[in-house]
């Protein structure tokens, strides 16, 4: 403080990795421990996955700021009430954090995996980064953790990696998969039946692997042809490339 002016706190988006606490970076642990406030998203009645991963990094005296989702699977994402509720929730959550930042208290906002890789932190970043100093602490992604389980490298030689959200419509999924050398399909859950059909249509079922809860105690992985009929949120499909030279693997790259 100088002349009665409070220096704003800094907002940190901290990637805590996919599940195994040992995959947290040294910087993530140090940053969390140094912030007086630790914020995290969670479902009602739970601490949240990111908070559980970071448990060993939380120190005595820190203020914890749980941000409880008003809706998760109760409404489909395309329902108008879902959009209204979730956007209002992110607005409110950002303002709660802004109150701490304005008072000079830095905030570590925990994020599963990496904050900028489909991370929930993006909702806070878009609302607060123009108002307060903001820094992202990268984290290990579930994608690379899943790839480490494969019997071959995910990409090699001239393979181009595609990251495909399973929320795309089926035709878009087929196009993306057909054009890919190596790829990872994220956001499975209720999208699994659609993704399964698209992978079969693209002729990739025998190359694909199903990974569930990568790096967690409940981790499972298997050939995609043996995958279960339903998938949890923390699951993905990983398809390694052929490792061709000249950008022609998968039939989707230009010469």
Task: Summarize the helices and strands and which ones pair or pack.
Elements: E1 11-15, H1 26-34, E2 37-42, H2 49-53, E3 63-68, H3 80-102, E4 107-111, H4 121-128, E5 134-137, H5 142-147, E6 161-165, H6 170-179, E7 182-186, H7 192-201, E8 209-212, E9 220-223, E10 235-239
Parallel strand pairs: 1-4, 1-5, 2-3, 2-4, 6-7
Antiparallel strand pairs: 7-10, 8-9, 8-10
Helix pairs in contact: 3-4, 6-7
Q: Count all strands and give the number.
A: 10
Question: What is the N-to-C order of secondary-structure elements (H for helix, E for strand)?
Answer: EHEHEHEHEHEHEHEEE
Briefly note the structural class of the backbone: alpha/beta
Strand order, largest beta sheet = 3-2-4-1-5
Mean pLDDT, to the nearest integer, reads 91
Task: Indicate the radius of gyration in whole angstroms.
Answer: 20 Å
Give an overview in words.
The strands form two sheets. A five-stranded parallel beta sheet has the order 3-2-4-1-5, with helices on both faces. Strands 6-7-10-8-9 form a five-stranded mixed beta sheet. With 255 residues, it is α/β, with parallel strands linked by helices.
What are the salient characteristics of this protein?
about 260 residues, alpha/beta, 5-stranded mixed sheet, 7 helices
Concise account of the structure shown:
The protein is an alpha/beta fold. The chain is built from 7 helices and 10 strands.
């Amino acid at each position: 403080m100088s002349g009665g002016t409070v220096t704003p706190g800094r907002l940190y988006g901290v990637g805590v990795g996919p599940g195994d606490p040992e995959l947290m970076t040294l910087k993530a642990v140090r940053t969390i421990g140094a912030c007086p406030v630790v914020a995290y998203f969670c479902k009602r009645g739970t601490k949240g996955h990111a908070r559980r991963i970071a448990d060993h990094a939380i120190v005595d005296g820190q203020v914890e700021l749980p941000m409880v989702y008003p809706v998760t699977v109760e409404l489909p994402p395309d329902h108008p009430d879902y959009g209204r509720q979730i956007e209002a929730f992110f607005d409110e959550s950002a303002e709660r954090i802004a109150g701490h930042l304005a008072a000079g208290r830095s905030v570590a906002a925990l994020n599963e995996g990496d904050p900028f890789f489909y991370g929930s932190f993006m909702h806070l970043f878009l609302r607060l980064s123009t108002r307060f100093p903001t820094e992202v602490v990268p984290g290990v992604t579930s994608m690379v953790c899943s790839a480490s389980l494969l019997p071959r490298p995910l990409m090699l030689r001239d393979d181009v990696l595609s990251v495909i959200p399973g929320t795309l419509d089926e035709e878009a999924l087929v196009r993306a998969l057909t054009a890919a050398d190596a790829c990872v399909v994220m956001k499975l859950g209720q999208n699994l039946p659609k993704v399964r059909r698209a992978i079969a249509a693209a002729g990739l079922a025998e190359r694909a692997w199903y990974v569930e809860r990568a790096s967690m105690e409940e981790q499972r992985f298997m050939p995609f042809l043996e995958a279960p009929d339903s998938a949890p949120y923390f699951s993905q499909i990983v398809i390694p490339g052929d490792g061709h030279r000249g950008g022609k693997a998968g039939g989707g790259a230009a010469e």
